[in-house]
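Encode chain A's predicted structure.
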Amino acid sequence: MKYLTSTLALLAATMLGGQALAQDVTIKVGTVVSGDHPENVGAREFERLVEERSNGEIDVRVFTDAQLGNQREMVEQLRSGALEITWVTTGFFGSWEPVLGTLEIGYIFDDREHAFRAFEGPLGDKVAELVEPQGVELLGFYEAGMRHLTNSQRAVEGPEDIKGLKIRTPRATYHLRTLELMGANATPMAFNELYTAMEQGVVDGQENPLSNIYNAAFYEVNEHLALTGHLHLTHMVLYSADLWKELSDEHKEIVRQAVLDSAAVQRTKVAEDDANLLSELESRGMKVTRPDREALAAAVAPLRDDAVAEFGEPAQELLDMIDAARAQN
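Encoded structure for chain A:
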């Protein structure tokens, strides 16, 4: 009887332990931007949806402000199974799948709606096909936004005013080359190092969506804002492939759907910021110009041919998908 009691107790403990293990799922989400940034509005909505829909079986923890490392470091953490979720732009992932740099050629997207149509169609499927062999699971897309140029030296009305400005860019080849053809001395640098670099004069300026410019207080170190709209970027929401395999099918469905649903909230926040932050930045002392977009687009147009020359048919296929989404207007 003693043996039976002990056996039953062990069995119960094992079952309870297994149940606790099945329910004890933690998902860490790492971002490099401040807590009130649109990216983290999306992250908090994802957190809420996953915890609610899993009845508390999944605990989501959001780490902002590069607490878990810069973007490159967090992608490597995904690939090694040390972090569940982060997001980077398609072009940034060109370090691992170079042809994706094609998606950060300047002026290939007319506006945010054009980009949404493209990524919600065949382009999104193609991007997943390209990134997933690199140790990640692509769950959906967040909006990184339309990028504009700021600097501490002078107002920008056209390409001639950009010439010689030392402008920080992300470490994405065709993103960097876009700024070079616009006239800048493009300098790759991690986002979390940028404010100090501008404050100390290491670089003259940068280019980012209005939400980044405002939330990172770049108006404190850059007086001039040029609404160049040279790039509309899209974040890939990525999950570690190794850790994805550990989730139950039910939890996978909850997580994937929460990414899609939170993306709608995140995009709404980006649109609100674009509508409201320009006047706020002006009130903080920024002087706003609206450069000749056609002249800037003409300056970077050769990059399409450069990408096809470098990557061949894979780059042409990406560009054709983007152009097809434009034709739906």
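Residues 108 and 322 are 7 Å apart (CA to CA).
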